[in-house]
């Protein structure tokens, strides 16, 4: 049995309002995004006790996020309101090459987050703390805040989860590699995606990539492979968990959904290989609708799918 804690998962990062283009038409659907916010929502929909650390503007988008998180049952006691900065925004368009993103986030409230603003008591009272490369790429102060949060989590013996989520529009590869590798050295649960990991490590084979992250210090690596599923590895065992075939229309939040569902299952004490199978199903279902958050499934939907995957 895992030790008691106020929260199962605490995420830190930047929320972004989303405008997502519907295929075949010119208008955009409003929604919610931001990788760690998406992760928090996905975990909450699986029944996990989740909190979020960030800053949003005193604007309509900030109000909308607070309403979303409260509706999802996410603890917002560590969400700051910043009167002189805006909440970030991004647009998603679709083409034959896949989904494409355009960001309007410079100077956002979340990018102004500092180490001094972090809630040590909340970090100490969670089972898993989660951050990402994007959380560190948006500004120098946010990067420092994440490293400080990782240090606090280590100090309080909280498990650390980290998704590199490489965005080369935000920083050059050499800087991203240095920062992300250092963060990965401090994490317990590494959640890289295959394309990001190839760029960051210079390796091509999934088995070599998971070994790289295990040697950096992670006790558990879940390397997502897109439609091919996920390669889960510990120091004792590696296992490839196949993905699920669905009628996909938009993969915008699939990786974040995997992260949230996987971490929710781990926090409940689930075996990581079983947790990955569950998270694969959640991620697949998240691609059947438009937007990052709207199509994220609940636990009952994931369990129904797992019981009848061909229905």
Please give a structural write-up:
The protein is α/β, with parallel strands linked by helices and 311 residues long. It is built from eleven helices and 13 strands. The strands form two sheets. Strands 5-4-1-8-9-10-11-12-13 form a nine-stranded mixed β-sheet, with helices on both faces. Strands 3-2-6-7 form a four-stranded mixed β-sheet. Strand 11 and strand 12 form a beta hairpin. Helix 1 crosses helix 9, helix 9 runs antiparallel to helix 10 (272-286) and helix 10 packs across helix 11.
Labels describing this entry:
single chain; 311 residues; alpha/beta; UDP-N-acetylmuramoyl-L-alanine:D-glutamate ligase; 9-stranded mixed sheet; 4-stranded mixed sheet; 11 helices; 13 strands; 23% strand; globular
β-strand number: 13
Which architecture of the domain at 36-54 and 115-302 would the CATH scheme give at its second level? 3-Layer(aba) Sandwich
Question: Going by CATH, what is the homologous superfamily of the domain at 36-54 and 115-302?
Answer: Ribokinase
Q: How would a crystallographer describe the biggest sheet? A: 9 strands, mixed
Helix and strand composition category: alpha/beta
Detail the topology: elements first, then pairings.
Elements: E1 7-12, E2 16-21, E3 28-33, H1 35-45, E4 50-57, H2 60-71, E5 79-82, E6 88-95, E7 98-104, H3 120-124, E8 126-132, H4 133-137, H5 140-155, E9 159-163, H6 173-185, E10 189-190, H7 194-201, H8 206-216, E11 220-224, E12 230-234, E13 238-241, H9 254-267, H10 272-286, H11 299-307
Parallel strand pairs: 1-4, 1-8, 2-6, 4-5, 8-9, 9-10, 10-11
Antiparallel strand pairs: 2-3, 6-7, 11-12, 12-13
Helix pairs in contact: 1-9, 9-10, 10-11
């Amino acid at each position: 049995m895992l030790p008691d804690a106020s929260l199962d998962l605490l995420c830190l990062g930047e929320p972004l309002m989303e405008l997502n283009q519907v295929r075949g038409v010119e208008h955009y659907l409003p929604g919610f995004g931001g990788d760690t916010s998406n992760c928090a929502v996905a975990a909450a929909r699986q029944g996990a006790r989740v909190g979020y650390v960030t800053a949003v503007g005193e604007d309509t988008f900030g109000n909308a996020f607070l309403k979303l998180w409260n509706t999802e049952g996410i603890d917002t006691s560590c969400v700051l309101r910043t009167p002189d900065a805006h909440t970030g925004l991004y647009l998603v368009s679709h083409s034959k090459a896949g989904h494409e993103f355009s960001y309007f986030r410079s100077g956002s409230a979340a990018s102004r987050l500092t180490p001094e603003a972090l809630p040590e008591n909340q970090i100490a009272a969670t089972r898993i703390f989660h951050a990402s490369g994007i959380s560190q790429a948006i500004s120098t102060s946010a990067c420092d805040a994440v490293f400080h949060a990782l240090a606090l989590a280590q100090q309080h013996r909280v498990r650390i989860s980290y998704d590199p989520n490489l965005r080369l529009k935000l920083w050059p590869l050499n800087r991203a590699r240095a920062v992300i590798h250092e963060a990965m050295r401090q994490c317990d649960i590494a959640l890289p995606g295959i394309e990001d990991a190839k760029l960051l490590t210079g390796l091509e084979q999934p088995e070599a990539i998971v070994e790289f992250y295990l040697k950096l210090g992670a006790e558990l690596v879940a390397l997502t492979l897109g439609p091919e599923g996920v390669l889960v590895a510990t120091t004792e065992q590696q296992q490839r968990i196949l993905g699920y075939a669905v009628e996909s229309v938009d993969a915008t939040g699939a990786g974040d959904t995997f992260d949230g569902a996987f971490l929710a299952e781990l926090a409940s004490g689930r075996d990581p290989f079983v947790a990955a199978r569950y998270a694969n199903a959640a991620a697949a279902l998240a691609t059947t609708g438009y937007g990052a958050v709207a199509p994220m499934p609940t636990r009952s939907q994931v369990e129904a799918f797992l019981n009848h995957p061909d229905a």
